[in-house]
Design a protein that fits this description.
- The structure holds 2 protein chains of 2 kinds.
- Chain A contains 28 helices and 24 strands.
- Chain A is α+β, with helices and mostly antiparallel strands.
- In chain A, the strands form 3 sheets. In chain A, strands 1, 2, 3, 4, 5, 6, 7, 8, 9, 10, 11, 12 and 13 form a 13-stranded mixed β-sheet that branches. In chain A, strands 16, 17, 18, 19, 20, 21 and 22 form a 7-stranded mixed β-sheet that branches. Chain A has a 4-stranded antiparallel β-sheet with strand order 15-23-14-24.
- In chain A, strand 4 and strand 5 form a beta hairpin.
- In chain A, helix 5 packs antiparallel against helix 13 and helix 24 runs parallel beside helix 27.
- The longest helix of chain A has 38 residues.
- In chain A, 39% of the residues are buried.
- By secondary structure, chain B is mostly helical.
- Chain B is built from 4 helices and 3 strands; from the N terminus they run H-E-H-H-E-E-H.
- Chain B has a 3-stranded antiparallel β-sheet.
- In chain B, helix 1 packs across helix 2 and helix 1 crosses helix 4.
- The longest helix of chain B has 24 residues.
- The chains are: A alpha+beta, B mainly alpha.
- The interface between A and B is medium-sized, with 28 and 24 residues.
């Protein structure tokens, strides 16, 4: 009914007006509506028009008069209005440049840093992926109970899970890598083999052309959908490309579509090709090479879904006990899986930046408090001349709000620049980095935080004024020159500054721990001299030239001596997996003539395919037996070399040389003879070396390699000659990612470096702010006590005595802050948890360093006030009296 | 007392109340009738002006009943300061009209 609507519209009025007249307005509305002049449809419409016009006229006026914050009649010629207050506030801020500059700087830094971190947190952690209904998308892993690392999926299990109907849609994909030729420069593409329902599961459609159709998937047709970036950069955005063929791995692939910009799932894909279904019955449930992504039915959570498909996994385990006995499926939200690793670090950094903001606010409070004190005289004079208490309050509040608003605006500007710098600095440590940017929620966050800060400042100021009897205060100030509460002010501020110091200590300890973790991580002995290795990726094109592993081996073993002939290179090797890279292949380990272990319980062993020069290039010492020659394996006799971890684990106390491993237990001729044992090389920075076997190039089909070249000098110098050698050997091989091997390790530690750097910056800022706070307080304290100091000096106290007094004041504050801060740090640093490596949360070195910095900061801040204390001239002070 | 002008609506309210205390809605009807010609006074405008007049002490809430007292609602009455303000205002308007007559003879109402 109309009355209800009008009642809702009444909410537009300020609460005071509404409370007072709401009832009468409503009654008037109802009575008017029943008048004859507004009868009928036309009359009702006219009445509504008039009512809305009335509202439009009076609502804004009412709000404006409310904002005048006055109880006195809002007389038009009062002279002071909301905007007048602001102008006055601006003027008075201009007249106090030091205070304004320092406060603005503090606010800008604090708000800017907080907003920047919040931008990252919001864009990466809080915002859903840019896919339709992304909360229904999940990654589905095939997990194994006896192998915590296992996540990948076997095709047969995928097909069954998809047929079970537990998902609205389930797609499968695998990493691929194909060489694109027939363009200016051969390129190694990150292709993904996908099922036909991949695009529909994710809810994306091609920009041009079409997606892969099911027939193309089941027949394994040579079609490809390109990513927008590849289409743009390599093919110049040519829209006539759809329907034409490109050459991948020597074969023609018809381009059927191009995806929209910014879609490159998974992992920066350059293109998508149909996944050929696995038909080999052996491989159907044993080859774990794939990944699944699915869309849940509406209303489900991943946990519920996991519960629903658990019985299905059990049925599979019963049907296929050899392969599936320990398997289960685990669905994880897609966004979750992308950001999971970085979430702890971002949370910690957000907490840290809030602490920094707190310190900034405390600093600001201290400043405002002091400023309110220095303006007492001015306020007292105004009051004596008749300004009402409310008007005085208004002026001061306007100042605080203006300061906070300016600080917020500047902070936002700093944050947008700062965010870009953050992303650049993170160097790939943060997922979804291209989605980071200012957005409405971020701006709203800044507004809220700066608004709260402004209100806090205003509140402090009003509290400072309201707590005294005004008349008495006025008289005192006008006559006494200094208020008696000056010393009380010093005491209050001392509490604030001590709190600041304690908080700064907590941040500094946190930073120290992260820095130490980072150092521990990079100083891990990777088992290889990373500084003297050149690394590059190369991908042999498929096709007739490299049809068999023997072809590949012949090519590489023939090319590597040419690489070694380059001046500055001593040894070179090609390998499937480089050292320290934790993403190598695994195989189940079978050992001939040992008791048969059921398949699900067999141990896993790392599996690397390497050229004969691998061991010398990487620098692995031979412990037993021998390594293989360039022409091995000979005559089908397969060989392999174990690392020390494998030998110690599976042949404790004896030599594994001569043992036969990795074969099919049904007696076929796929056994590999162990011919030697070498020292371990780390496969990851954070974990000890695990068992691994190395086999020659000709023994397995691999096309993507890493080439390492040992260089006694800096590796960068030989990059181009080595590339030239490779190009001479075969111009169609794309070479990528050429650089010192140490750079690759650097990428592995990008995230810890990022966290440590950021936390260190916060700690640094916090110390600076704390230093300013201590300085301000001591300066105030000295100036409050000039008289005392002067008298003491007149009575014979030496300058040294005065100096020590000031220093003692600083030292006491520092000591208390250290005590509180350490307690706080011990509690807080426990939260760092997974970010720490090689250090405990109570690491003494970090604690000591933090305490020392705090002491240094306090001493430094005390220097100037101490000096001005000793410079007090007793005579002039006494004369002032 | 600062010499501030009264808005048109405020003057009309004072005129109405000069004749005796009234409810808010009754004031509205009275003004509309007086100004005639299909004029409608918005409730929001009315009460906004009433609030202003109250704050300046020219009118006040009356305890006790007005003529239309079967409805619950506030009754307003004019204060002495209000009468004085109204007189000043009417005097000013007369002066304006008198001046206008001098300036433009023959164009009076």
């Amino acid at each position: 009914m109309g009355a209800r609507l009008y009642r809702l519209l009444l909410l537009l009025y300020p609460p005071g007006f509404r409370r007072r007249f709401g009832q009468e307005l409503l009654e008037g509305f109802e009575r008017d509506l029943s008048r004859p002049r507004f009868a009928g449809m036309g009359g009702a419409l006219r009445f509504w028009a008039l009512t809305l016009a009335d509202l439009a006229r009076t609502v804004p006026v009412e709000w404006l008069s409310t904002l005048r914050i006055t109880g006195a009649p809002a007389a038009r010629r009062d002279g002071l209005s909301f905007w007048g207050d602001l102008r006055y506030a601006a003027r008075s801020l201009r007249k106090a440049p030091t205070f304004t500059t320092v406060s603005l700087l503090t606010l800008t830094l604090g708000l800017g840093a907080t907003t920047a971190i919040f931008t990252v947190v919001h864009s990466v952690l809080l915002r859903p992926l840019a896919l339709p209904e992304s909360e229904r998308l999940v990654r589905v892993y095939e997990r194994q109970r006896n192998n915590a690392d296992a996540r990948m999926v076997a095709y047969g299990n995928y097909a069954d899970l998809r047929a079970s109907g537990a998902f609205e849609s389930l797609a499968i994909w695998a990493f691929g890598s194909q060489v694109l030729t027939g363009v200016d420069r051969a390129a190694q593409l990150r292709t993904r083999e996908v099922s036909a329902n991949f695009a529909s599961t994710l809810g994306v459609r091609p920009l041009l052309g079409r997606w892969i159709v099911p027939e193309e998937e089941s027949l394994g047709e040579h079609v490809v959908v390109l990513s927008h970036e590849l289409w743009r950069s390599t093919f110049g955005g040519d829209s006539a490309l759809v329907g034409r063929a490109v050459t991948l791995d020597g074969e023609p692939y018809t381009v059927v579509g191009v995806m929209p910009p910014e879609f490159d799932y998974p992992s920066a894909a350059d293109g998508w090709v149909p996944l050929a279904p696995v038909t080999n019955p052996q491989g159907l449930r044993r080859w774990h090479r794939h990944n699944m992504v699915g869309r849940m039915a509406p209303g489900l959570t991943p946990e519920e879904l996991n519960r629903r498909i658990a019985p299905f996994a059990e049925r599979l385990a019963q049907t296929w006990p050899e392969t599936n006995a320990d398997d289960y499926f685990e669905a994880v939200g897609l966004t979750d899986s992308v950001v999971r690793q970085v979430r702890p670090a971002l949370r910690i950094l957000f907490g840290a930046v809030l602490v920094l903001l707190l310190i900034a606010t405390v600093n600001l409070t201290s400043l405002v408090y002091a400023r309110a004190g220095t303006r007492e005289r001015e306020i007292a004079v105004r009051t004596a001349l008749g300004a009402s208490a409310s008007r005085v309050r208004r002026l001061v509040v306007a100042e605080s709000l203006l300061l906070a608003a300016l600080g917020g605006a500047l902070g936002l500007w700093v944050a947008s620049a700062g965010t870009r710098a953050l992303v650049a600095m993170s160097a790939g440590a943060i997922p979804r980095a291209d989605e980071i940017g200012l957005s409405l929620p971020v701006v709203a966050f800044t507004l809220v935080v700066s608004g709260l800060t402004g209100l806090l400042l205003a509140g402090i100021t009003m509290w400072r004024f309201g707590s005294r009897d005004r008349a008495e205060g006025v008289a005192q100030v006008l006559h006494g020159g200094r208020s008696s509460s000056g010393l009380r002010a010093v005491r209050n501020r001392r509490v604030l500054v001590t709190a600041e110091l304690a908080l700064a200590l907590v941040l500094t300890v946190g930073a120290g721990l992260l820095v130490r973790s980072f150092e521990a991580l990079v100083s891990v002995e990777p088992g290889v001299d990373a500084e003297r290795l050149l690394a590059l990726d190369l991908r042999l094109p498929g096709g007739s030239r490299y049809a068999t592993p023997a072809d590949v081996a012949r090519f590489l073993e023939g090319m590597l001596p040419d690489v070694e002939a380059v001046p500055g290179v001593t040894r070179a090797a090609a390998m499937l997996t480089e050292p320290v890279d934790n993403s190598g292949w695994f195989n189940t380990l079978t050992i001939r003539n040992r008791p048969v272990v059921p398949e699900p319980e067999r141990p896993w062993i790392g599996y690397n395919v390497v050229s004969s020069g691998y061991f010398e290039t990487v620098g692995l010492r031979l412990l037993e037996g021998r390594t293989f020659r360039p022409d091995e394996p000979l005559g089908g006799h397969m060989v392999g070399v174990l690392n020390r971890a494998a030998a110690e684990l599976h042949w404790p106390g004896e030599s594994p040389v001569g043992a036969l491993i990795l074969g099919n237990l049904e007696g076929d001729s796929s056994w590999v003879e162990v011919i030697g044992v070498v020292e371990n090389v780390r496969q990851s920075l954070t974990e000890p070396a695990h068992p691994e076997v190395y086999v020659p190039l000709a023994q397995d089909r691999v096309l993507s390699f890493v080439v390492l070249a040992r260089t006694p000098g800096p590796p960068a110098g030989v990059a181009r000659p080595v590339e030239a050698v490779i190009r001479r050997a075969d111009a169609e091989i794309p070479v990528a990612d050429v650089g010192p091997f140490a750079g690759r390790i650097g990428d592995l530690v990008a995230r810890p470096r990022f966290s440590a750097t950021l936390m260190g910056s916060f700690a640094g800022l916090a110390l600076v702010l704390a230093c300013v706070g201590v300085y301000g307080l001591l300066a105030l304290s000295v100036s409050e006590r000039r008289k005392q100091i002067g008298i003491r000096m007149a009575l014979g106290a030496g300058r040294t005595r005065v100096l020590t007094n000031v220093l003692r004041e600083a030292a006491t504050m520092c000591a208390i802050a250290i005590a509180i801060g350490l307690a706080g740090a011990l509690a807080a640093t426990r939260l760092l948890g997974s970010l720490l490596f090689g250090v405990t949360p109570t690491d003494p070195a970090a604690l000591a360093a933090a305490v020392a910095s705090l002491a240094l900061v306090s001493a430094g801040a005390a220097f100037l006030p101490a000096r001005s204390a000793t410079a007090v001239d007793p005579a002039s002070v006494l004369r002032e009296e | 007392m600062p010499d501030t002008e009264l808005s048109h609506v405020a003057i009309e309210i004072l005129i109405t109340l000069a004749r005796g205390p009234q409810h808010g809605y009754a004031i509205k009807l009275d003004i509309e009738e007086r100004l005639g010609d299909d004029f409608v006074l918005g409730s929001g405008t009315l009460y906004q002006a009433i609030q202003r007049l109250e704050r300046r002490g020219l009118i006040a809430e009356a305890a006790g009943a007005g003529p239309d007292d079967r409805r619950r609602g506030r009754v307003y009455r004019i204060e002495r300061a209000g009468r004085r303000a109204l007189e000043r205002e009417l005097a000013r308007m007369k002066r304006v009209i008198a001046d206008a007559r001098v300036l433009a003879p023959g164009r009076s109402r």
